[in-house]
Amino acid sequence: MGSFRTNVSDAPSFVLTGFPGMEAVEPWLFLPLLLFYAISIVGNSLILLIVKLEHSLHQPMYYFLCLLSVNDLGVSFSTLPTVLAALCFHARVITFNACLAQMFFIHLFSWTESGILLAMSFDRYVAICNPLRYATVLTNARIVAMGLGTILRSFVLILVFPLLLQRLPFCHSQNILSHAYCLHVDMIKLACTDVSLNSHYGLSIVLLTFGLDSALILISYMLILRSVLAIAARENRVKTLNTCVSHFLAVLIFYVPMVSVSLVHRFGAGLPHSVHILMSLLYLFVPPMLNPVIYSIKTKEIRRRLLQLLFRVRF
Q1: 15 forms bridges with which residues in the sheet?
Q2: Separation of CA 160 from chain center
Q3: What is the DSSP letter of 13?
Q4: Could you tell me the keywords of this UniProt record (predicted)?
């Protein structure tokens, strides 16, 4: 794999990990991951194209969906180069700066996705609980402000990670990562000094972003459910709740894998290392892949336009 710098004053290199003990079949294991990438990239690109072409979709809900699709594309392109290099070509050495950049973008898009889902829950809350004020509350200017605020929040919080990592010495002969991509928690484990500041800051912003966002999303759905149950006609209640199904599923496929990865990381010490790798891959792969699928199936306008684009079906 080449030589590694052991001088802490030099910029270290890191070694990416595929599936230990399964190196001979790793190129084949990449095939399903490649399918996930293809579905994610093509699916989210089609969502953006359809919303642009379909004027009936020029509404706040679908503007947020476009922001979610752009973010999911960012997640896919952040991990694709190193996963492809590690599993297909066994090119596993990555420089410190490249690892730092990948770590920054992976966490940036993950944190941003949480904020986008929160903004989408606010959109559903206003649409159902205050429908008469929907157009005045969610103006184009306010949507842009919410989108930029979400991105800026993530950028400012994640920017501290590279700054903290640059002050750490890495003095191992081989800095072997646990995955085929770079994560903050993975990198600080390899430092040969106290990393309590990094750990405490990482935990703090997890609580500040994922914890706060998920709590606010839960509150918004409690208010939505209360408003829906006040509707007299059962058919209208079902119709109203149906407008939230896509977003609710998007929330589940984002937070459930994330919680599962955290539980496996904390309590799954006896599990094979390949299980940890697989769970982390699912956390990064599943939301970008399933979000466009869910919205294409559940949204009539997107489904109709998609059939027109792919099969020239006329309605």
Answers
A1: 93, 176
A2: 19
A3: E
A4: Cell membrane, G-protein coupled receptor, Membrane, Olfaction, Receptor, Sensory transduction, Transducer, Transmembrane, Transmembrane helix
